[in-house]
């Protein structure tokens, strides 16, 4: 059994994380969020050695365009099962009909995909019913946390046993405060239903630190209000390591494959 993951892109221009597990000759691939056009998704998947037709399931964390993207098109064209909360579906349904492969995800209800188990959990964010998740092959666990306004005890509990973490580091607080955004937007971003600042992500990471944590990826960085070196340094300090040990997922190229075995 082997589990690995990569980011196809992370940021306000589009988010998608590819998770792959192999057991002998069997392979299963999950896409967490699908915030790209189908053409761009296929282009980036090809760089990782697969195509949209190879995706076995999609999990959409919430209805914002940079996360749902072409998920419904993918479902209708390829018959791919797409999981999302009921609230997320209501947010999407205004613009497109439900595919036959739509599946409803619920907080704390595990989803068995065969080789992978998904465990959704609720988070505070300005969406109808956002869910983040952890993903396990029965041996290793990947935790995903993007688009969340603040750290909660529930989030920490869900991520504490993970062997790899993909954590939102949306903004550096000082850059946001000094930047050109109007005050109302700054307050929304930094508010309890907005996005994580570097220091808050670092606090979550410090509370989830353990000896078997192998990979940490900084994700969903704002191009206006953050820098990769600032995000990496904040997370590295939480781990007591060097910033070069932190992977930063970019908006255009994401990050390369990271293995958990």
Task: Report how far the terminal alpha carbons are from each other.
Answer: 8 Å
Helix content: 25-40%
Ranges with pLDDT <50 over ≥5 residues?
Answer: none
Write down the secondary-structure element order: EEEHEHHEHEEEEEHEHHHEHEE
> What name goes with the CATH superfamily?
Ribonuclease Z/Hydroxyacylglutathione hydrolase-like
- Number of separate strands: 14
Average pLDDT confidence is 97
Percentage of residues in strands = 25-35%
CATH topology call: Metallo-beta-lactamase, Chain A
Largest β-sheet summary: 7 strands, mixed
CATH C-level label: Alpha Beta
Q: What's the architecture in CATH terms?
A: 4-Layer Sandwich
In terms of structural class, how would the helical and strand content be classed?
alpha/beta
Radius of gyration based on Cα positions: 17 Å
Main sheet strand line-up: 6-5-4-3-2-1-14
Dominant shape = globular
Number of discrete domains: 1
């Amino acid at each position: 059994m082997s589990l690995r993951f990569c980011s196809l892109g992370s940021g306000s221009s589009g988010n998608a994380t590819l998770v792959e597990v192999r057991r002998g000759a069997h392979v299963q691939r999950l896409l967490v969020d699908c915030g790209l056009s189908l053409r761009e998704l296929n282009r980036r998947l090809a760089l990782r050695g697969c195509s949209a037709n190879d995706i076995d399931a999609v999990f959409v964390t919430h209805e914002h365009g940079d996360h749902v993207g072409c998920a419904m098109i993918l479902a209708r064209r390829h018959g791919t099962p797409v999981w999302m909360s009921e609230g997320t579906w209501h947010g999407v349904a205004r613009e497109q009909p439900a595919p036959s492969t739509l599946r409803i995800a619920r907080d704390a209800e595990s989803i068995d995909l065969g080789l992978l188990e998904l465990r959704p959990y609720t988070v505070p964010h300005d969406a109808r019913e956002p869910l983040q998740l952890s993903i396990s092959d029965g041996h290793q666990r990947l935790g995903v946390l993007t688009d969340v306004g603040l750290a909660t005890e529930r989030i920490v509990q869900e991520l504490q046993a993970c062997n790899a973490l993909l954590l939102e580091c949306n903004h550096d607080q000082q850059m946001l405060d000094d930047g050109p955004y109007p005050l109302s937007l700054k307050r929304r971003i930094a508010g309890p239903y907005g996005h994580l600042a570097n220091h808050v992500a670092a606090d979550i990471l410090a509370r989830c630190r353990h000896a078997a944590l192998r990979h940490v990826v900084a994700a969903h960085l704002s191009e206006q209000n953050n820098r990769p070196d600032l995000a990496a340094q904040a997370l590295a300090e939480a781990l007591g390591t060097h910033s070069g040990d932190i992977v930063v997922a970019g908006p255009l190229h994401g990050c390369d494959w990271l293995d958990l075995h």
